Each structure stands twice: as C-alpha cells, then as structure tokens.
Amino acid sequence: QVQLMESGGGSVAPGGSLTLSCADSGMTFRKFCMGWFRQAPGKAREGVAIIAPDGRSGIAGPVKGRFTASKDNTKNTAYLQMNSLTPDDTAIYYCARMVVEGPCRLVATDFNAWGKGIQVTVSS
Asked: Cα(26)–Cα(12) distance, rounded to whole angstroms?
C-alpha cells in the first residue's frame, strides 16, 4: 500500500519561497508519475506540477516560472519548489502518485494514491 506524506508547508510573506517534500513509502516510486495539486478555499482542486518517471516535469500555467518540480529516486521523495509566492497561492497542497503505468497527465482522476495534504499560507 502506497503512503504519501507531504512536509514543508507553512506561512510565508508574499514574495517568499517554500519547498514542499513528498515522501513515498512504496517500493515502486521511480516507476510511476507523480503529481502536485492544490485546493484553495471554495475552489476546485487544480493541478500544479507533474513529474514523469524519467524525472521530466511539467508545470501548470498559473505557476509556471515560479514553481519547479523534481524528485530524488534514492530518497523516494518528490519536491515542489515554490518561489515568488502570492496570496493566490494559499491552498492545501497535495502530492499524488499513479499506481499503474500510463501517460503522465495533470488530471486528478489519473492518480490513485494521495497524501493528506499540507497547508501553505501566503500573507503579509
């Protein structure tokens, strides 16, 4: 059973940075797509970043140029580096993993394993 746990969230002033980590307890971390999603109060969950098994990543339009995603297969951990944060980035951030092989798409329903989420608050 795959278990994902996010860490690194918290409060930061506008313009600040945070790095989220997602530790994967599974034995097949390197084989499947990883994703980062977020959900702001009163809004639908949206995709933020995706990491393919080979390490290539894709970033969603609203955060492109500010966020980067990566992973370390030796640590079974994925990362989301967030820079130039704005209040609009305030949300609960989730990491997720596919448990079957397939194309990597930033579509929530493609992901079968989810972390519990971690709060990121950007305010002055």
From this structure: 31
- DSSP code string of 43-110: S--EEEEEE-TTS-EEE-GGGBTTEEEEEETTTTEEEEEE-S--GGG-EEEEEEE-SS-------GGG
Is residue 1 scored above 80 in pLDDT? no
What are 92's strand-pairing partners? Answer: 39, 119
Q: Phi/psi at 110 (nearest 5 deg)?
A: -80, -15
**Residue 108 tokens, joined:** 């929530």
Is the confidence at residue 88, as pLDDT, over 90? yes
Burial of 5 (0-12, 13-18, 19+ CB in 10 A): middle
